[in-house]
Every structure is written in C-alpha cells, then in structure tokens.
Here is the input.
Amino acid sequence: MRALVVAEFYPRAEDPVLGVWAHRQALATRDAGADVHVVVLHRLVPAKRDVAGGPRQAARSLARKLGQPRRTELDGLPVTYAPFVSPPRGMAYGSWGAWATRALGRAVRHAGPFDVVHAHNAVPAGDAVRRLGLPAPLVVSVHGGDVYHTAERSLNVARTFTAARLVLANSTGIAERARRLGAADVRVVRLGTDVPGPPGGRRDGPPTLVTVAHLIGRKRHADVLRALTELPGVRYEIVGDGPERGRLEALARELGVAGRVVFHGQLPHEDALRTARAADVFVLPSTDEAFGVAYVEAMAAGMPAIGRTGEPGPEEIAALGGGMLRTTGDDLPAVIRRALDEREALGRAARETVLAHFTWERCGRATVAAYESVLAAR
Here is the structure.
C-alpha cells in the first residue's frame, strides 16, 4: 500500500520541531507496513513576527524558507517540500488550500501514484488535495484548529469533510465536532509517544513543574505563574517560545516568583523531552486542547499530568486510565499540591495509561487499519 501524507505542519530546516507529531505518525505508519511519502505545504511568506522585526529580519526569514531543499529524507522517510505563497493568515487562512494546489500537484506528479492520500488538517492540506482531484481516496486527520476556529470562517472545512472518505480525529470530542461539520465516517486514532525505560526514584531538589507548549494565551502559562504564589518552594520550567514570552516574564516579576521560573525557549524535540522528564509534574491547563501529545510524552516517563476540565484531550486521556488530573482553573494550586503529594502513585498510573493506549506503535497500526478500511470499501 502506497500512502501519500500531505501536511502543512511538518519539520523543516528552519523549524525542526514544527509538526514533529505528524512526522512521528508517518514513521509509525511506515513501520506498520505502509509505503509512505510525505509532501509538505511549504509557505514561503515570512512569519508575521519576522515582518514586524523589520526588512532585514524578514529577508533572513525568506532566505531560510527559500533554502529549504525540495526533496530530502527524514529518518529514512522521503519528504518533498512544495513551496507556495498565500495572503496573510487572518481571514484568508481557510483559502490557503487554493493557493497551494498547484505546488501540491507538481510534487505529487514527481512522487506518485498512491493508493490513499492522508491530509493532516482539513485546511489547507485537505482542501488542496480536494481541489487537486486525485483519484486515490482522501483520509483527513483533524487536530483541533480546523474544527475549533477555521470552520467558523471558511466553508472549506465542511467541504473537505464531505469529500473525505474517512476522517481521523485525535480524540472523541474532536470526532463529535467533525461529525457536526459534515464528516460522515469518523474514527478516533490517537497520537503516541516513545516510552523510555522505567523511571528511577524520586528526584532530588525542590519540587518542579514543567510545561512544554507554544507561548500563546490559550496555553494558560499565566495560570501556573499565579498558582506559584500559593506554592512556596515550587519551581516552574517553561519549554517553548512565542508571542506571550515577554508578558509572561513580566508577570513572573510582578508576582514575585521570577526566581523560581526558568524560560528555556524552544528546544530541539529530544532536549525538550529530556528537560520535561526531569521535572516532577507536567502542567498544561490550556483551552481548546484537542489532544496534547505533550501530556502523554510526560506521562510515559512516569509523571502525573494536569490539564483543564472539559477539554477533549485531557478528558480523553483521563477516561482511559490514571495519571491525568484536571483543573477548573480556580483550583489549580490544590490540584498541583495533590499531584506533588501523590507523585509516585500517579506517575505509575500515568505510565501504565500510555503503555496501554498511547504508543507510536499502536498509532501506526491504527493508521494503517484506517487506510485498509478505506481501500476495502472502494
């Protein structure tokens, strides 16, 4: 079976961490028996933050994008980058598939033919595949943003769901949202994580919390900083970068907790994992959290995780086993205290939950089974 994976978020020279979960799923799918080729929709327009940094920063950003090799291999997987341009994100994001279609067509002609096409997100990847009219059946993975935000602004999400032979959701809650938007056949395929060796004993030093996430408002890093004021002696390590960093650093100073907070910035994936797994508790009380690979990556190392009540990802993980605590927001200090007090028992339960439900091997087998079901129904 030859499978074409089309993705907007995928590792590249300028950002080797971007969409690493999509790469890991592609590798797991290959290891489960599929012949996988990846096409990345590679937008050449400099990011808004680079444009705001002035002409030189914008020019450097464009040079990095233009320097991306068109064809390469990542971990033995053939990857083709399809460069395209499009208007600014804003209200135009839902139409990016139309702008990327021609570039996708050129890449597919070089790499095809394929038995099945798997697009990550309804737009722009799924929409570009739909517009291209490939003969292979379309499978679309939904990761949250398309059903939370883009569907409100663009009909192309619903159009892609209608065109798809199968929609894969990363949690039950996201599957329900996809059905409401017109997806006829939906199944849940959960993402995974590598599982390190058994953890050692309790860590030395002060109790430490960690968050691995982009520094944007909905990730709610500020809630954790405020909770620290009620948790004397507890440290907080933040892995990731983004537009909220300056505001969060100022808030930490204002709250008097800056001496207990470390901003690591964005780290390579393996370094991020190593840093996170050296802490005691993973905390990410974010909103609009469709799944959250970072939760299960931490839990795999025997760490309790804290997410927000009512969010699809944390609710899905908690429903399948132990080790995931949830907060309403107001009770975050108390939930953190519980996680620290019961760390060893919760950590063991967290690891067992991951081993039973959230390995990459399991994800790869489930993805191949989804492809096979589509081909059998032709």
User: Anything to note?
Assistant: The chain is about 45% helix and 20% strand. The first strand starts at residue 2 and ends at 7. The CA atoms of residues 298 and 304 lie 8 Å apart.
